[in-house]
Specification:
Elements: E1 5-7, H1 11-14, E2 24-28, E3 31-36, E4 43-45, H2 55-67, H3 71-96, H4 102-134, H5 145-160, H6 163-176, H7 186-203, E5 208-215, E6 223-224, E7 229-230, E8 245-250, E9 253-259, E10 267-269, H8 271-284, E11 288-291, H9 294-303, H10 314-321
C-alpha cells in the first residue's frame, strides 16, 4: 500500500514529547488542539511526491548540480537527478500506455509518491542509534567517520526537509526566475542542499562541538515543524555565513552543533534562556508547535504572536554562562 500520509518531521523524534498515554500536545497556527497520536502530527498527504518535470526543469537541476563545488558531491547529485528523472519519465510512459495493467500503473505512481519518503526513511534509520546516543549526552560517534557522516547528513536533512524551508526555497526560485515556474523544484533543491551542508559539516567536523543544554524548568523545551534552527540565521532568509544548529532532543535536553571558537559549554539553562530558545522555535515554525505539558504549550503560544525574529541575545547568554 502506498504511504500517502507523509511526515515532514520524523514521527519517532516527536514521540519524545508524548504523554504517558501516548498522545502529543500541539498547537496549529497558534491554536491549541486536542491531544492526538504522533502519527497525526506534522503530516501531509503526498508531501514528498516528485513533481512533473519539464525539459527546463532538467536543465536547471543539472546546472545546480554542476555549480556544486566538490566533484564527489557533483557525482552524488548527478546520480540523484538521473534516478528521479527516470522515475518521473517512466511513470509518465506507464500511465499513458494502453498496454500496462492497473497494477503496473499503481506501482509506478507509488514510486513517484514514495521516492523521497523512502530516502528520508533511510536517513532516519541510519541516524536512530545516533539520536539515542545524543539523548544520553554521548558524542563519541563523531570520532567514527561512518557514524559522523550519518549524523551530519541527518541533522542537515532535519533542517532542510521541512515544509517551511521547501516552500521558502520554491518561492525564492520563483522570484529569481520569473519567466519559468521552478517553484515545484523546492523539494529537490532542498534535498541536495541538505547533502551539501551535511558534507561541509563532516569535512569540517574537527572545528565543531556538540554541546548539550539541559532543562530543569517546568516549561521545558518545545519543538515544532522546523525542529532544527540556525542561531546565526538571518531575518531576511538570506544565506548565513556561519551555522550554529539548535536541535531540541526532548523537553529536557537539546543540543547545539557549534563552531569551537564560540566556546559554549554544556549548561543547565535558565527560564529566560528556555523562553528565548522556545520563542526561536515558535518563530521559525510554520504551523505546528509541540510541548510536553499543557502549561508549557500555553506559555509558548502566548509568547509567539510576534511576527519579528525574536531579538534576544541567546548566544551572548550562553557565552556568559560558559
Amino acid at each position: 500500500m502506498t504511504t500517502r500520509n507523509q511526515h515532514h518531521v520524523w514521527r519517532y523524534y516527536l514521540e519524545e514529547w508524548q504523554s504517558e498515554d501516548g498522545l502529543i500536545l500541539s498547537s496549529i497556527n497558534g491554536k491549541i488542539v486536542p491531544p492526538t497520536n504522533p502519527k497525526n502530527v506534522m503530516v501531509e498527504r503526498d508531501f514528498y511526491k516528485l513533481p512533473q518535470l519539464t525539459k527546463d526543469d532538467e536543465v536547471f537541476l543539472n546546472a545546480f548540480v554542476e555549480a556544486t563545488g566538490a566533484e564527489e558531491l557533483k557525482q552524488i547529485h548527478r546520480n540523484f537527478v538521473d534516478v528521479l528523472v527516470r522515475v518521473v519519465r517512466l511513470n509518465e510512459i506507464i500511465q499513458s500506455s494502453n498496454k500496462t495493467s492497473d497494477e503496473e500503473k499503481t506501482n509506478a505512481q507509488s514510486l513517484v509518491i514514495e521516492f523521497e519518503e523512502k530516502l528520508q526513511g533511510g536517513i532516519e534509520q541510519d541516524a536512530l542509534p545516533i539520536l539515542m546516543e545524543l539523548r544520553r549526552k554521548r558524542t563519541d560517534f563523531v570520532t567514527r567517520d561512518k557514524d559522523a557522516i550519518k549524523f551530519f547528513h541527518y541533522i542537515s536533512h532535519q533542517y532542510f526537509r521541512t515544509k517551511r524551508l521547501r516552500q521558502n526555497t520554491g518561492e525564492a526560485l520563483s522570484e529569481m526566475y520569473p519567466n519559468h515556474d521552478f517553484s515545484r523544484l523546492g523539494n529537490i533543491i532542498c534535498h541536495m542542499a541538505a547533502t551539501n551542508v551535511g558534507s561541509t559539516l563532516f569535512r569540517d567536523r574537527r572545528e565543531f562541538d556538540i554541546v548539550f543544554l539541559e532543562n530543569g524548568t517546568d516549561i521545558g523545551f518545545v519543538t515544532g515543524d522546523q525542529p532544527v534552527v540556525n542561531l546565526l540565521g538571518t531575518e531576511d532568509g538570506s544565506d548565513p555565513k556561519e551555522i550554529i544548529f539548535y536541535y531540541p532532543l526532548s523537553p529536557y535536553l537539546s543540543c547545539l552543533v557549534t563552531p569551537k571558537e564560540y566556546r559554549i559549554c554544556t549548561a543547565e539553562v535558565s527560564v529566560k534562556i528556555t523562553d528565548e530558545l522556545n520563542d526561536l522555535i515558535a518563530w521559525h515554525s510554520q504551523r505546528f508547535l509541540v510541548a510536553k505539558s499543557d502549561r508549557a504549550l500555553r506559555h509558548v503560544v502566548s509568547r509567539s504572536s510576534s511576527t519579528q525574529l525574536p531579538a534576544y541575545h541567546i548566544l551572548d547568554a550562553l557565552l556568559t554562562r560558559a
